[in-house]
């Protein structure tokens, strides 16, 4: 029991450590910049808006196809091979702004493309999906412009695993694929939102 307690304590410490480290990141020279703070606060609101639209589409998928719980679909997910766009640079011990912004930007492009499968799946909600794609593109552009304005280096990550979406073998697989695209995008946005929020508090 004693060992288990120590393991749990270590696990909790590791969960919280990334954000404590983020507060100590070498961004002091940016934290007081008014334009940078304006960028952060504006895009926090933008990210929150995008999260709300993704949540609305998740409710549509749940109501339309009765696909609501990830736990019930994990075996199908393995067959589909739909991966989460990485954001480890936004919450790791090695956090730095350039890498985090690059991963957010790259991930937004991935999801902008992936949402095409959701648009095909929900033709009656195509307008909302297209708005979401446009918002993802605009947020990515905002970040790219800010990176350039700040003179930050652009970080390039390997593109393995970023292949186009698989050809769904059945209507059900397409439905499950759409479910996981939205679930992954929501998690991605939550991590991006936390990163922007913590930068704003530095």
TrEMBL record:
Signal peptide limits: 1-24
Gene Ontology process terms (BP): immune response; positive regulation of myeloid cell differentiation
UniProt xrefs under InterPro entries: 4_helix_cytokine-like_core (IPR009079), GCSF/MGF (IPR040117), IL-6/GCSF/MGF (IPR030474), IL6/GCSF/MGF_CS (IPR030473)
GO molecular function (one): cytokine activity
Cellular compartments annotated: Secreted
A single GO cellular-component term on record: extracellular region
Stored PANTHER family: GRANULOCYTE COLONY-STIMULATING FACTOR (PTHR10511)
Official protein name in the record: MGF factor
